[in-house]
Amino acid sequence: MQAIRLARQRVALRPLTTAAHASVSPTAAPSQSAIPLSNVEAQWERMSKSDQALVHRQLEELQRKDWRQLSIDEKKAAYYVAFGPHGPRAPVSPPGQGLKVVFATSGLIGVAAMIYFTIRSFAPPPPKTLNREWEEASNERAREAKLNPITGISSEGYSGKGFVTHK
Q1: What is the pTM of this model?
Q2: Considering all CA atoms of the chain, what is the largest pairwise distance in Å, rounded to the nearest integer?
């Protein structure tokens, strides 16, 4: 932490002002920077770290003043530096990435469906015990054998489906 403080002190301060700010505040120093605050959003990514630190400190000084005296460009620059899409708030994926993900997911689901139906077409027919008649016969056999007489199919007043699972 001490090294960062020492590094900050070595960087020469250049006041960054816009024409609007210079006209509002007569005590402001003349602009010595090639980076006006009105264009911070466009140049932020190309600035060196020292220039970014200078702009950040300049904006901190401007924000200590009355906000009503700040120009619109200075307010926009302060907002961009504080909350802009740079550093940890930079977008994780590039624009158009969501569409690629949707198409890739749809393609994979389509391939999986094709594999499923291909395997299904080579499968043998279902066994004879998987039809409605067999299940109804299983219900009758369970009633005859008095299977589960307390709460099941052989109990009094039973109204469930029993073994029937097909419609």
Answers
A1: 0.41
A2: 105
